[in-house]
Amino acid sequence: MVSAVPAFRTRRDGVRAPEVIETERLLLRRPVARDAAAVFSRYGSDPTVTQFLGWSTHRKLADTRKFLAFSDAEWEQRGVGPYLVCEREGGKLLGSTALGMESPRQAVVGYLLARDAWGQGYATEALGAMRDLALRLGVLRLYAVCHFANRASWRVMEKCGFRREGPLRGRAHFPNLQPGDAADVLCYAMFFDANPQSW
After folding, report:
1. Is the pTM higher than 0.85?
2. How many domains does the chain have?
3. Do 49 and 112 meet the contact criterion of CB atoms below 8 Å apart?
4. pLDDT by residue (tens digit) across 146-176?
5. First to last CA, the chain
6. Which of 87, 93, 124, 166 has the fewest beta carbons closer than 10 A?
7. What does the pLDDT look like over 129-147, one tens digit per residue?
8. CATH number of the domain bearing residue 114
């Protein structure tokens, strides 16, 4: 996931993202307060899952509750934000993804999965859903950044049509790897036609 999402005002036309999105195998939904224990146990407290993220591994349930409060604020202020990634059949929590609006035409995306959900194509499916959502919301440039060592994340972005723009020097913080140091990251992006009907 990305480390921070700059401020954005809800679009004048009142467009808001759906709180539930379904794909072939997944159900993506807005998090709620009662998800705290599941988020904490499935991935928030796992140092392997969170090593390449821009937020610290959750040490206690209160850390996860802060994330859920942040999520609510994003949804209320911007009309979009984090989604939990769940199995469509059975509802098992697999991870999370997010769309962060930096301006009406530019957004940043991120994703993560619990360890037992790795290698099954779920990240590609979830990122594809965020890509499609960005297009529906009128985004023209969608991007993501990742640590140089996170090769699995590169592959997911490339499968979804993102192209590497290059390295960004001293751009992101990875508190679980290099506390306090700004690290270099790779930036991947995609551009949409200004006329969504062309897709």
Report:
1. yes
2. 1
3. yes
4. 998 999 998 999 999 999 998 888 777 788 8
5. 27
6. 166
7. 999 999 999 999 999 999 9
8. 3.40.630.30
